[in-house]
Amino acid sequence: MNELNYSVVSEIVFKGIFSSWTMQHLLLGFSSIFYVAIVLGNLLIILTVTFDPQLQSPMYFFLVNLSLIDMCLSSVVVPKMISDLFYECKTISFHGCITQIFFIHFLGGIEMVLLISMAFDRYIAICKPLHYLTIMNPKTCTFLQVSAWVIGLMHSLTQLAFVVNLPFCGPNEVDSFYCDLPRLIKLACVETYKLEVIVSANSGLISICTVFLLFISYIYILFTVQKHSSSGMSKALSTLSAHISVVILFFGPCIFIYVWPFPTMPVDKFIAIIDFIITPILNPSIYAFRNKDMKVAVKRLSSQLVNFKKIS
Q: Strand, coil or helix: what is 11?
């Protein structure tokens, strides 16, 4: 980490997404509305599951964690992007850039493991329903949660290990609205092709392998359901379609951005919006608000709040 002191670059300049002020104002309105919806929607899920005794199951345990991670991941990037839209010169300190990279990969790594945990939870619930509560006990859920945080931390620290020893002596402009490894590495004053290959292997291949593992599990679940009960096929498809939608939305941009170590394209920053603005707001609607038990719990929580206000 001492190498950071020898970097000439003290701040990073973002070129942003649009050069037109009109488009920036439209993006400002769009991102502000979506960010408020992300925070409120995910907070609603967290509060509903936390305070409703009828939702204390492994599935909702993972859902609360996913909502928390989505909200935090969006908060790492979107508020800074919104504030930058007010200024012509969009900057972030070099240490702030490193911090942003750390949390993006830390939270992103956690979400990867959480999605695998949720797929495992659905596999047990659909394929081994009689053993569900025995296998998915509090100890197992806690182990999966802790594993997600540990793996996310290891993934992020590994990524940063590739950057902190690089010399940065200029230029300092990044054609994006946030800091991430592919664009930051290109600012280094040394040849970085081999390093880009390593970064791609770390992030891109991990994403591809995770997606492959998830889809194999979904196919196995559907095959098992069809083998034992054709009537349960439609229910399984309905459940898994939600998971598949989230997997595509989350991993699609990751794979596109990290899968190859070549010059980043301008379209990357538009695709990144999906991960930071679109996916975090779709998760509540896909996982929670289409769920009957969740809808009933939200209504129950709302009525309790109304009654509390009347009494007070």
A: strand
